[in-house]
DNA sequence: TTGTAGGCGTTATCAT
DNA sequence: ATGATAACGCCTACAA
């Protein structure tokens, strides 16, 4: 891939590189005639300034590093969608890194992003990350960082999350109002913020309705490929009359397990996190669904980060931004309790 | 983000930058003592070579540009997964671009990737791309390009695809063997290669079993948000006795539409493209599924590209690599014809 | 209005 | 064994 540079143009037109550079940047101190000559020639040769040279000079890359647990996940791929839309519109490129839910790999990939001179980082923490000292040290070195979705209260600086508390509260209350009392909660690993917020919303809803919190109804499921079936089997020994499930994958596993066992559970499943409504409709028409604003979250996080990068601190909302979730209550769910 | 450079080290240790550079690269012509001094100091200050400066010097970015129609799509996000695994292991980074199924945006993003000095491009064509002259001109400029999944026969060079013909053939034959004769085919836009290959497999299977090809049983659906329901309604007027559907999204739309109409269609749906088997099981237990090797496709495409970039032409498989698909035949599908 | 020179961080070449 | 210098492509302060 042989490229044409400012030098080539200068040589061809018998000008100095600085004149060409200025002409291309439309400087006022260049004679219109010369400008025309240069721009026309550049156009004809399809000249593109070398962004790498620029980066070196300006000491910035115009690249945003995004670190997510996994790409092949509806929520994150939609969030990335939102991030890209904003980033590109503001002249940044996006490099995506996966932590694969591992603290070690998260460190490594963040290191990579830093080494690659990303201008800022957008991070959703892995489920095995409890120590954010490393991120703190990067912040101290003035690297702009915005956390989204899976955040940490141990880290200062802007965060963007969904209203996990509110969403979980609403979903749980929905089940209670349908007459359920022993609502099992199948959720993600306990480290991550969203798990804690959702658990908290679940407990608050129980409390509001005078239902005692029963720890034996709560199960944490890892990510890997660990099957959901045994967990459901185990939960069933506590004779729950409903399930509040904390992710798409878990919900599908839960439905699958229950179907295998021949257990019909009309109106007794609620879910937070589903992003494909048609699938949800087909899978379980009576299941209430709390939808997270994935793409919007990405957009807002990206905006915050870019404002930070560009020093527009005043445009950065202090600390945590909480985005509303949207609950979809299924018809049948309201009508046929029992 | 203040960074430490080779210069800082040189100054601190009273050495020249060249000595430091050589020491860090473990050159034999540096005294062990000096080496130790330098590496220790570098370690302590957490020195990282600036990849941008290196890129400028070596005239390459170690970045691979990936252009896909959309990220938020199971198939592509899994393919990207495979691409990243290979790319990172070989020292490349990946920048992802979306064409959003638009020819114009595809051109723009490819331009971006080129301007950003990507060392090579991995492309899955948008559904509106029929003219690949632009890509050809890039190839002529010696830019390594590998197409995957949605390829073009108008472009020379390596391609990686799934065995769409074979998969479609098998799926169609499966329906025929279950006693179906009027098999509708709901598929993607007609431009893209996978549509043509699948149509061809479908037709071959019909032909083999002496069933006349009936154009009125075939429908092309765009991507956008165009509802599948009206298409199904329309198709039903041709009184099909089975459906062979060409993507996850279309399959879900198809199932949803049929359910709304109260039409039960045991053993009469086959699908190519599904990536989440559990969901498929739950949605339609009798549906046969042809699974595409998404991640593997990404891996192989990335390998090919990197070999091209690094001049290992002899390691690049000539022209098209076709990966086998995997068909999952559901129990019920085989037993209860009719 | 245009040209010259220096620097961004690194490495390769050519001294010493 | 180490240092000085030039070069990658671009921009800009300073000169002319």
Characterization of the model:
Two copies of one chain form a homodimer. In chain A, about 45% of the residues lie in helices and about 15% in strands. Chain A is an alpha/beta fold and about 350 residues long. Chain A folds into three domains: about 45 residues, lambda repressor-like DNA-binding domains (434 Repressor (Amino-terminal Domain), Orthogonal Bundle); about 130 residues, Rossmann fold; about 140 residues, Rossmann fold (3-Layer(aba) Sandwich). In chain A, the strands form two sheets. A six-stranded parallel beta sheet of chain A has the order 2-1-3-4-5-11, with helices on both faces. Chain A has a six-stranded mixed beta sheet with strand order 7-6-8-9-10-12, sandwiched between helices. In chain A, helix 12 links the parallel strand 9 and strand 10. In chain A, helix 1 packs across helix 2, helix 5 packs parallel to helix 13 and helix 8 runs parallel beside helix 9. Chain A starts with 5 loop residues before the first helix and ends with a helix. In chain A, about 45% of the residues are buried. The C terminus of chain A is likely disordered. Chains A and B meet through helix 4, helix 5, strand 2, helix 6 and helix 11 of A and helix 4, helix 5, strand 2, helix 6 and helix 11 of B. The first copy, chain A, binds a DNA duplex (16 and 16 nucleotides) through helix 2 and helix 4.
């Amino acid at each position: 891939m042989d490229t044409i540079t400012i030098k080539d143009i200068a040589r061809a037109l018998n000008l100095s590189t600085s004149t060409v550079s200025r002409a291309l940047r439309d400087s006022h101190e260049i004679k219109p005639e010369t400008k025309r000559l240069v721009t026309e020639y550049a156009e004809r040769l399809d000249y593109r300034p070398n962004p790498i040279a620029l980066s070196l000079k300006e000491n910035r890359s115009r690249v945003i590093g995004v670190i997510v647990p996994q790409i092949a996940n509806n929520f994150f791929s939609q969030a990335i969608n939102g991030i890209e839309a904003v980033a590109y519109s503001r002249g940044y490129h996006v490099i995506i890194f996966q932590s694969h839910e591992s603290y070690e790999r998260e460190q490594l990939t963040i290191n990579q992003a830093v080494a690659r001179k990303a201008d800022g980082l957008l991070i959703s923490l892995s489920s095995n990350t409890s120590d954010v000292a490393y991120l703190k040290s990067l912040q101290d070195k003035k690297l702009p960082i915005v956390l989204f979705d899976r955040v940490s209260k141990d880290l200062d600086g802007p965060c963007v999350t969904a209203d996990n508390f509110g969403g979980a509260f609403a979903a749980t209350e929905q089940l209670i109002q349908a007459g359920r009392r022993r609502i099992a909660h199948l959720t993600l690993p306990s480290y991550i913020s969203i798990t804690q917020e959702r658990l908290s919303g679940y407990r608050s809803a129980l409390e509001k309705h005078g239902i005692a919190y029963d720890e034996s109804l709560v199960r944490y499921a890892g990510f890997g490929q660990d099957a959901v079936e045994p967990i459901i089997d185990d939960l069933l020994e506590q004779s729950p009359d409903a399930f509040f499930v904390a992710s798409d994958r878990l919900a599908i596993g839960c439905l699958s397990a229950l179907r295998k066992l021949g257990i019909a559970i009309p109106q007794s499943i609620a879910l937070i996190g589903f992003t494909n409504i048609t699938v949800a409709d087909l899978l379980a028409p009576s299941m209430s669904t709390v939808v997270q604003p994935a793409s919007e979250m990405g957009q807002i996080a990206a905006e915050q980060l870019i404002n930070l990068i560009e020093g527009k601190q005043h445009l950065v909302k202090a600390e945590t931004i909480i985005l509303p979730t949207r609950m979809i209550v299924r018809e049948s769910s309201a009508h046929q309790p029992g």
